[in-house]
Amino acid sequence: MKTIFLDTAVLLLLLVGVGLWWRGAVRVRFLPCPVWLAWLLENPYMNAVASSSTILDRLNLAPGMQILDVGCGSGRLTIPAAERVTPNGAVVALDGQPAMLEEVKKRVAAKHLTNVQILLSRIDQDELEKNVFDRALLVTVLGEISDREAALHQIFAALKPGGLLSITEVIPDPHYQPYSVVRRLTEAAGFQFDSQYGSWFAFTLNFKKTDEPHDKTLQQPV
Question: Among residues 94, 97, 85, which one has the least CA distance to residue 137?
Fold first, then answer.
């Protein structure tokens, strides 16, 4: 019995250590959730605390809207979002892993959807059109982005005035970002807090695009 307890404790410590290393490593290199772990985002626990329908219900989607799904993975949110904004709306499914986007393509084809655009990108470069999206999604993704500040500025620019950025975080995601970090980063990029759902272990925070980016470095007199 004692041996089993020690083995379990060692395993837990190892998992915690790997998680902490991973959280730090993503700040300097691209280390997203690998394709073979995509099932972690589509399981009974995730469906209970942060299902695709729950997250999308918090966005007041309507037909005709343009949606940006950042770090779309295998398309857990992409597909139902595309179905909700038909007939004239569309979804851009953005991810930095080609294998993930191949999974999205399979799902799009299976549903016979024609309003999903695939975009291979890590979101920290200036690749998006300005002022075109009504909603942007970051679901258990923010912590995976190496340059979170640059990514949030890109999303800010891509949203229409009054558009919403929706960020969802869920424990035990190793990239989990707490309330305070999410608010600090998004508000520094110019977003205004709009609404909050859930609790600390599984929450969604929505932010609205304001008129001007809140970048103190740009506001300093020359």
Answer: 94
How many CB atoms within 10 Å of residue 215?
A: 14
Tallying the residues shown for the chain, one arrives at 222
Q: Which amino acid is at 21?
A: W
Domain spans in the chain, listed from the N-terminal domain onward: 1-31, 32-212
| pLDDT tens digits for range 70-105 | 999 999 999 999 999 999 999 999 999 999 999 999
Q: Is the peptide bond before 174 cis (omega within 30 degrees of 0)?
A: no
- Taking the C-alpha atoms of residue 216 and residue 41, their distance in angstroms, rounded to an integer, is 36
CB 37 within 8 Å of CB 175: no
The single-letter DSSP state of residue 222 is -
User: 147 φ, ψ to 5°?
Assistant: -110, 85
* pTM more than 0.90: no
> For residue 10, how many C-alpha atoms fall within 13 Å in the half-sphere facing its CB?
6
Q: Is the peptide bond before 172 cis (omega within 30 degrees of 0)?
A: yes
pLDDT under 70: residue ranges of the chain: 1-40, 212-222
Candidate CATH numbers 3.10.129.10, 3.10.180.10, 3.40.190.10, 3.40.50.150; the one for domain 32-212: 3.40.50.150
CA–CA gap between residue 78 and residue 67 (Å, rounded): 9
In contact, 141 and 97? CB cutoff 8 Å = no
